[in-house]
Each structure stands twice: as C-alpha cells, then as structure tokens.
Design a protein that fits this description.
By secondary structure, the chain is of the alpha+beta class. The protein contains 10 helices and 21 strands. It has helices at 18-26, 50-55, 117-130, 159-170, 213-222, 272-281, 353-357, 366-374, 411-426, 497-515, and strands at residues 2-12, 32-35, 65-67, 72-73, 103-105, 108-110, 133-134, 176-177, 180-181, 227-230, 234-240, 247-254, 257-268, 306-313, 326-328, 344-347, 376-383, 392-395, 401-404, 439-444, 480-482. Helix 1 (18-26) packs parallel to helix 10 (497-515). The two termini are 33 Å apart.
Amino acid sequence: MTIQNHYDLIVIGSGAGGGTLTHRLAATGKKILLLERGPWLKRERENWDSRSVFLESRYKTQESWTDGRGKAFHPGAHYFVGGNTKVYGAALLRLRERDFEEVRHQGGLSPRWPIQYEDLAPFYDRAEALYHVHGQHGLDPTEPPRELPYPHPAVSHEPRIQRLHDDFARLGLHPFPLPLGIRLNESSPERSECIRCATCDGFPCLVRAKSDAEVTCVEPALAHGNVTLLTEAKVLRLETSADGREVRRVVFEQEGEEHAVEADFVAVSCGAVNSAALLLRSSNERHPNGLANRSGVVGRHYMCHNNSAMLALSREPNPTIFQKTLAVNDFYFGADDYPHPMGHIQMLGKSDEAMLEADAPPLAPGWVLDKMAKHSIDFWLTSEDLPDPDNRVTLDAKGGVVLSYRANNEEPHRRLQKKLRSLLHQIGCEEHTWFAGQIYLGKKIPLAGVAHQCGTVRFGTDPETSALDVHCRAHDVDNLYVVDGSFFCSSAAVNPGLTIIANALRVGDHLEARLNGRAS
C-alpha cells in the first residue's frame, strides 16, 4: 500500500453533498482531494436513449446489495463524477418550516431537527443560486418564507399541462411551478443551454444543461489548482489515530491497488447507504461497532420516502415534451377529511414505450405500449416514511451492503393516490377514455429505488442518540464530517436534493473557519 500526499481536506464522493462542499471550499486555497469511486459519465448518444437508460440500465451500478431476507438486488445507484445528480430530475424544493418540527403522522412521530428552517434558509438561497433553480414564490400554500426571489423565472407549462394546472385551480387547489435546476433561458431560446427535451428526468444530460453536481460544482472546482480529483477510487476504510479521536488515513482502491492518503479533515459524502457502510467497515479497537458509532445509530433510521409513479391514460393524446413542470402541495399536511400529512404531487418526465416496457408483461405488444405512452399523463407522488431504527444498513460477512427496510406510514400515501385519482376524475378525464373506463397505472418504488436515501448517520445535540453534531461533525471523531443525506432526522415529503446542497454549503462555512483556525 502506497502513502500519497497529505491534504488539508479529503472529500469522499462527488454528488450533491461532496461536489457542493468541494466547490464551496475550492477558492480557499486549501489543498483538497476529491475521491470518486466512479468514472466520468461518458457523453454519448445513449445518454438520451430510453432503451439504454431504462431497459438496459446502462448507467446504473452492477453492484449487488442484499435485503433483510438475504436476497440480492441491484440498487438504482449511479457511480460517476456528480453521483446520482447525473440522472436526477433536478426538482429542487425546500423542506417546509414544519418539516423541521415534530410532526404527528398516522404512523407515528416525525422528530424535531436540532436546527430549524431559519438556520438553513440563507443556505437555501445560496443553493438555489448555485444550481440555477427556476421557480415562482407565493403560489405554494405550504412554502416557507424566503428573503430572496428565485434566481430564475419558473419553467413554463406546455399546453396540456397548463390546462391541467387550470383544471386543478378551478377545483380550488393551488398548483405551482415545480422548482427545477436547469440552465434554461426561455426569453432567449437561441442562447439557452437547455432545449426542453424529453430526456431529462432519469437521463444524463447530453448537452450539459442540467444542474448536476459535476457541471455545477466539480468542474468549476477543478479550475482551482489546489483541488485534485481521483476517479475510480473506491474508499475501503478510514483509519484513525491510536486514541481514535481523529481520522489519519483514507484507504482506497484504484486499478486493483490499495493506496492511502492523509488529511487534516475528512468529509464522507457517499450517499446515506454507502456512507453508513463505510463507517461500519472502519471499525477498530477504539470504535468496535463502526467509526463514530458510540450511539449505535450509524446505519439505522434509513428512509427513502413512500414513492410511487402514477400514469393516467385517456383517449386524448398528451403531446407534452418537457412535462416535469407542475406540482401540488395542498395535501402535504392533510385535508379536511384527513388530519394527517399525506404528501407531495409532482409531474414526472414524459414516459415513452421503452420506459413502459421495463415494467410491462413480457409479451406486451410494442404498439400498445407506444399508444399508452402517447396518451399518458405522468405523476410522481411522495409521502413521508418515518425513521425506524430497524430500517438500517449493515454489512454481510464480506463487508457488502445489507439494506433492511420495512415500509411504514403507508396509509397517507394510499390516501394521496386516491386524492389524485379523484381529482383527475373531477376534471373529466373519464369523458375521453380510450379504454372501457378510467385507467391508472401505479407503481410503488421498490427497495432498489434509493434516489431519496437519507437518515443513516443522523445529527443531533446528544451523542447518545446521534452520530453527528449540528455541524455534521462526528461526536467522537474530531476531524470527520458526513455531508450527504445521511444527516437527516426525518425524510419530510419533498425531494431531498436541495436540502443536501444547502447543508453542504452550511457545513462548508464551518469547515472553512476550522481550516483557517478560526473555529474548534
């Protein structure tokens, strides 16, 4: 094993957390090493090919994890520079103010966070500016207060989605433009990097117009001579000082050889599952249950949301190309007929034949799937799952990931699905049905769907019940930080991406002070 250079900071993982943190600290002049287990994602025609992306899983890892019953599965994870943001839908929403408080759900309590919305609000402003977020304030009835307007105007609806918006408004709802991180200029389309294609949600962006962590943060950070990126460098373990109080070495594998690097500070940003797994793999005499795990919570309280996709099919075609522009939060915290939170509704990217084929019966005719796709309106529904200590990441005998998860708080999600079906019925979809009656195709996202992973290395003020302090520094390891969705205390019911980004900026401010000797 070779020992390489000493760095001021090593960041492990280049996604929403690690990529943003690296960008935030790049201008400090400090010597920073960014380690990414994957390669650069190749720009190629297949980036925009539905069959390659959805049927052949061209960009998903072929790594196997194991569920709680010992069954192997391939997670929907993407190991590239930029992490999972390379294929995310770029829906960048703030958590609501009440999401930081204790909230009672039908299935139990969502706990209070050790920080509140106002602590994160200025970093949300900065995150939206950095990731080119488009939106419109004042339309979402649950939105939190903000000091600054959105940095870019809301993305416009195409005619069919505008009509859906108007129909929802006629029913007394408050539909609003979904906040999106894309490099779109609708006032000067000839200058716009984004071309409003149909291959955004779930696809890599061939024209580099999606605000993913590679384009937005990693590449600009590398323009600073003090930042180094190593790709295809999988971190195996963290080694501590003899007293266990500091990480001394980061051991990684590259091209079949082990290497070690040293740093004053280390930030783990591998995603909630892999960050927990790395800490567990780094157990030693001082940390026999895993690094920073005196509390026993590392790996526990895994959350991923109760998510489902719903496709409404009708006789009227839906020619929309860029569909992911509309959201509804009227049932986020409940309704007149149900006192508990239900969740969030947003549009999905427009489905096509290949996407439907991925979940269709083996002999389903292609022409049927094509016609279904052309007549579908596609929705994504998100409800909060609650932190359960038995929903957790552990390791098998060979150090592989075991992800044990049992869904909870499911009734609110069923009610949210029912609400949406009722709404579509009320706006007259059944008058134009292609089939004998109104048809909805619903798909609950399985265990392998880890896009919204969070909660496995929670932060808090009590070292007996949390692994990290309020700055996301490990209680028991002075120079170790975890900067991804692991720190979440609850999952709320909106996409976690913007909160991960905002928190990385918050931690970056703290780390800059420590790097300069101004904070303890």
